[in-house]
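so the lab meeting is tmrw and i was supposed to have these ready like two days ago... anyway. pasting both below. for each one the top line is the aa sequence and the line under it is the structure tokens. i havent really looked at them closely yet so no promises
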Amino acid sequence: MKELNPIIKKIWDIANASRSAMDLSMTMNFVVAMMLLRRVDCIVGNKRGNIVKLYQQVRNVYSSERLENELMAVVAPYKVYNVSEKSLTDLSKYAMGNGNELRAYVMSCSENVKRVLANLDLEAAITYLVSAHTLDEMMEMICEVDLSPLVVSDEEMENMMFNVMELFYSGMGRKAGEFSLTDSIRLLMGRLCLDGIVKSNSNYSIYDGTCGNGGLLYRMNSMIKGYHANAYCCGQEINTQTWSIAQAINLLSASDNFQIVNGNTLLQDAFPNETFDFVVCNSPYGIRVNYGERLYDDSRFKFIAPNVDGSIFFLQNGLSKLVPEKGRMVALTTGGLFFNMSAGIKDFRRYVVESDIVDTIISLPAGIQMGTSIPFYLCLFNLNKSAERKGKIQLIDGSTLFTTIGGYRRILSNKNIDSILKTYKSFSDNNISKIISNDEFGYYEIEIEKDGKTVDTEQIPLNIDSQKYLEHNIIPNLPKGEHVNLANTRKEYVINFKSFFLRPEKEEKFSDLKDEFDERQDTICNLTNEVMPRILGELANNQTTNKEGKYNFQKTRIKDIAELNSGKSVKPDHITSDGVAYILTVSNISDSNINVRDLKQVTEEGLNEGHYCLIEPGDIIFSNVGTIGKCAIVPDSDKPFILSSNLIKIKVLRDKCNPKYLFRLIASKKFQDKVRRLTIGDVINRINIKSFGGIEYDLPSIENQNKIISILDNNVEKIENLRHQMVEQAEVLEKIRDKYVDMKIL
């Protein structure tokens, strides 16, 4: 069997070569599409003659369904085909011209392949590559990769696809709540769910209602095969392009045990009458759900609250899919599940604790998820807890169990995963494991009243005699006129995870601080020496020069490479909490990003009547009144956006400028200084749209813009880590300064 690493390298070379014509997300979709096309081409292989002959004989005789069945029988057990007389290799030998021959080849594929390629927007990628004169190069490169089943097995093909996508995800900005799992987390989730449960020669069902590209399902399926058992995998994903990637991976193999549906899991349950042995869930967080009455009659949801974090709904959906008194669900979640007191979340928490279905909670190392430093937890829900675990929850502190690779990135190594699972199976108290009874997390909240009004509350732990506590500790200490009202007593639960693992603070010595300072300084120097020369060198090498030997920049104005429009105030009667479009305001821009939480929305009637400024993903927005200079790129969303007042919409003409390049330029200090010099107003600063559009600057060619953005994107993680290291170094310096102050040396 050929080593896969060289193949992945070739695929990544294709990605890098195509980045000059497309942005990162489009490049990822293009690479996935070409891997699928090449796999289909290799599956057909030397059967192409038979397929073409059969197709030409019966295409006007058989029904479309029978025709498809007959053609797929030729390549069985695979369920893909192509009826073109020419292979991809044949096409690659000739100039692609306008790309129509490749388009014809795509249209000769089976319907399932064509649908995936359409959703991945291969047509747009072909257009971009033709414009950049790089399509021929892409075709030659992909045809050098042998993806035939005899060379690359189905499982290896799946793993290769996920490895390639992980390379992409490590450099892509993500929306709130949208983070692709690393394979080490998928492995831990799978083993936590399956180890000791799966028996050989048995059949199991798995469900993932937030399946994304299917990574968890494919990992679980592979693991169950490793136990010499069989799996039936079902999933649902709302994002059409992400779902298409999952479908592409499914079509790469001969597997027929996957059913992944495109749709809204909460509103359009694709598996309403099915239950599963195992459920996995990487629940989106920070995404508000306002479906209102549409969920009240759905038996999956016992706890519904308006404008609540959507993760609570996906967790309830997952639990509803478990086989009664048997199923296990492992979910990746944030800490809000354990201590957030919002309606719905606290009720759900009380339900799962009192139902005794929370088996284990594991804290994961900070920074283990690519693209965010938010702390994450794994929560194992078990409908069939062993006798020793009944009435208890095991807390495992895995925050220190990680392996650093590349000098800064954290992963869970096999050794780390083994350590966590060993701790789980031992079910004992130690420095990283605590066995806590359910009632230790609970308390009664009682109200203190005065003159008929609630003036305070008191909490009484569940695991003590509440009456005695009330009589000895609360009532005697109440101020005059106040009394206890037991009528509104509530039972609540909070899982304050960190409080069970408090460690005494270590007295920091100057020698320790100096060692830490020196270590961080070495890290900063190493990163600086690694990253900066590489970036500067690549930028310099990729600049073309004109006859005078200068960089090939041209004087350009904003209005020459972008369409500009002003936002408009939204009428109060057009604003709602559950509308058809989000309203973007200046307050939604923070640190060059758009905060999509708690956005107000516009009614359908208001959208039709208001003549508001619609903006699309990829547009740039810029604040031009009051706080001038805030800018961001509009992200993808489930609803369109409209632009409120005090903002300018910048729609970049992509044949003249890369939106990411213009965004970085607008966010730069030099550009912002130009903006400030053009501001007017005695009380409120502003820059009018005409002055903004007239700002002049030096613009390199579109080819060089693409190359510059590609270089910066490929190094963004290292740049961010360098910034993080510098911040931590400053904190160490603060500690050293405080030590000197404490010793009264200054």
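ok protien two:
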Amino acid sequence: MSRRLRALAAVLAVAVIGLTATTGAASTATAADAPVSHAPIKGSGSSWASNAIAQWQADVATNGGLHVDFNPNGAALGRSDFAHNLTDFGVSDIGYQGTDPSTGQQDSALGRGYAYLPIAAGGTALPYHVEVAGKLVRNLRLSGQTVAQIFTGKITNWNNAAITKDNNGHALPSIPIIPVVHSEGAGVTYEFTRYLAKEFPALWGACNGGKKVATEYFPVNCGGNGGMKAFSGSDGVMNFLTSSGANGAIAIEEYSYPLGKNYPSAKLLNSAGYFTLPTQYNVAVALTKAQINMNPNSTDYLTQNLDDVYTNPDPRTYPLSSYVYAIIPTSANDAKTNTTAARQTVGDFLYYSICAGQSEIGPIGYSSLPVNLVQAGFTQIAKLKTADPKVVLTDRNVSTCHNPTFIAGHPDQNYLAKIAPQPVACDKSGAGPCTGTEGTANSNPVGGKAPANNSSTKGTTAATGTPGSTGSAAAAGGSVAAPPSTGAVAAGDADLGGAAPAADGTTSDGTVVPTTLAADDHAGPSRPLTALVILLFVLGLVAPPIVVRLLRSAR
């Protein structure tokens, strides 16, 4: 072979090697981005959060193929199950206490490594069953003082003067009150009794054996009220409340449950003098006053102090608002969640829950997390990768997080709280009470605004004696996005509406776009693909003239 032909072969060899190397790099990148393995996982705990979790379970099963089992056996058992390595995650309205301050029951993680992760907000509602002339009363209002007296046995009949005063002189007939509580250790009980202990300590202390502290175990028949009923779980409470023999009953329950059964909840008086419901907007406003432990070195990192929530002076506040938490494993040698596939499923499920899943839960009775807790949630989820470097957590940031509390260009604002509607005049103490759907707005924002009422939301609390209208309880307009590492192709986002967002986070038709707060680091072609294109371009320019000259010289 001549020297010129050998040079030609060398040029071609370099090209082949370059193409092979670049293609190999591209193949490696593709393999790294391929869907990862998952395994079924199991959780247990708060029935307060169960309706939200059930929605997320269905979403990730459909869009990502994830199998997540959840037993709503109560927050106390959820923490215990996790501590005894029976579950991959727990769900609780509170963190481990060491011992229950009221009952003295032991409550610790028993040495299992864990982290708390806020997953949803919501309101402890006061659903009730009061019929007058065969019709269900739907516009009841109660002050915190009256509620405290009802559940501590001081008020036992619906014709009590304090109830009449709360309702601006509108008296109810003589019907015995049946307070309904949870029989299991429940987070909703803790949140309610914490409110009583903080705001009405004398009443609560007399009911709770002199202990002016919160508890997950309500002291049944406290204050000598033999009419009190206790049932296991949220479904048990609601099944009794809605039964034909429950006229006069009132319960403590997460708002999602009465809303889903189209049952009324009492409007609760706030510090500004307005009676409000725990809509997603009123809860979002209330929790702007929550004090969150932001010390990442604390074992109670991200847990809540609600003292200022109870007294938030904003007239849109619902005082009994709070967060609920997932408890996730963080040890490299965890006894239960000890495979990459299981940790991956926990990470993907929780990422979905605090991001796209948040847009699903507002209309069914919860409220979405603000951006600071979502970002802190990413930090907690990252501990799964610290325990196992094989866990894939790419693209877990606000740029991929479709959450309705923050929108493009304004990550520092709680969007739901910003657009929350002001209460109407008939909800003010001394006026009303309202007789229509005023103050019940709970659907997701439309056209950048909260809806005027609940006319399009399933579970509406409507006017006295009139059933609420029904509709979709989920976000309108499409499927939900899959977790990034599942590799599933996401359907159209429910909130996008097909139009490009403007700088204020809305589209040309006014639709809110709760997405893309920062540039996506992984957008565009990969580096190997870019290198391949450049190499081919250079070879296309350089190689032909060289080959032609070499061939001419060889003749």
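from a quick look at the 2nd one: The radius of gyration is 28 Å. The first strand starts at residue 41 and ends at 45. will dig more after coffe
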